[in-house]
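Justification of computing resources. Each target in the renewal requires a structure prediction run like the one illustrated here; the chain below, 239 residues long, is used simply to show the kind of job we budget for.
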Amino acid sequence: MNSRQRRGVVLLLLSVLCAFAAFAGVLSVISDVNSKVGPEVTAYRLKTDIAAYGKLEASQFEKVTMPKRWLSPTAVTDISVIDSKTAVTQLRRGSLLQEDMIVQRPALENGQQEIAIMVDAATGVAGKITQGSLVNIFATFNDEGLGKDKPSESRIIVANAKVLDIGQLTALEPKKDDRGGGSAEAVPITFALNTQDAQRVAFAESFAVNVRLALVAKGSPTTLRPGDDRYTLQEDTSR
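Resulting structure tokens:
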């Protein structure tokens, strides 16, 4: 082996050693990064804004992967936890879902049933009624519905009705006899009521001129005083 061949072998060995050194360096960097970052886990990010007390569905979230050490202890890593849950406050698009952002939906008590009605957005308490609120349900009847010998009146058909759920604002088709020509907006609201109160609400939705909700303040009396559940203009002006 001449001197030129020996130099070639030496250079080849040096190249191999440099390659091994570079490979070892890469492995060292990867190991160092893994030790600092740690294992990755799944989290869930909001794809859209969610209103306070709104329903939660898996389609509202996107799955993301990130290092476990970067997540807070309350971060949701299993999307199944949103079943039967609602948002505590308004949730913003792009936020990571946290356990303290959600709460269990109010459950029905023994003897109660769910009933949902469409409440005119203009006559309800817009934006102030939330899941779990107590409301008085008012229904206004005209003399046609009560009989020609009876004056128009307003009644509290259900006092302290518990709100289970509030749906999305929906545009309603105008009625045939609506001369205004515009479409009204209504919100589906679900209540937890006993059978008799559910029948009252169903009747009022079908035959009342209007159905309104009045938010009951916390700590208010749970029973009405005699005469407070019914009002007529004729009786009021005669006092």
